[in-house]
Amino acid sequence: MIAKISLFMILGAPVVASDMQADQAGHFCGFSYRFESYGFGVAEGYTGEKLPAPLLDPGCFQIGRRDGVELKKRYGSSEACAEAFKAGQSQGIAGEELLIGSPSDCSHFGYRFGRSFLTAYARQGAEEKVGASCVEAYRLGRAHGLADRAMTPPSGRKESVCYMAAHSEAKLLPD
Kind and range of the H or E element at 79? Predict the structure, then answer.
């Protein structure tokens, strides 16, 4: 059975839901580029591939990497974990809500990486990785955030995520 749950706070950043991350990453690695650094670290630790975050917080990246290595140790070469990770990653990149697969921590960590990938490359303007509509929504959200305008995200899920990420971090990350 798949349970549909929303893992979003008012600012659009996923809430830390795994017990592996909760005690180490906590709120510090739960927002903006720190969230992304953690997500890229988890993916690198789990897959063994070098996946540097475009905007890096070294501490959150290392915590994520350690959690990704722990996930790999826990599940080894489990096909179920690999599939759940990939499914979560796809949902995150698409800006969808997470549909928890099994094992749930594999699904969650994949989702966190997918969401990190989406917002990091929207900020970079990488249309070839996240699509022109996401990059445009990010730019609009940033402009609205810098102008202290209320959030008015686009209706598309992916575009809405890109917009809200930019709006929330606009004053945190100056040009």
Answer: helix 79-93
Tokens of 11: 């600012």
For the chain, how big is the Rg over CA atoms in Å? 15
Report the alpha-carbon distance of residue 77 to residue 7 in Å, rounded. 27
pTM score: 0.81
Q: Report the C-alpha gap between 168 and 123 in whole angstroms.
A: 12
Query: By three-state DSSP, how is residue 99 classified?
Result: strand
Residue 116 token pair: 């990190």
SS3 for 69? helix
Cβ atoms of 38 and 59 within 8 Å: the answer is: no
**Longest CA–CA separation in the chain, Å:** 48
Give the tens place of pLDDT for each residue, 9-58.
323 433 333 444 444 456 688 778 889 999 999 999 999 999 888 888 89
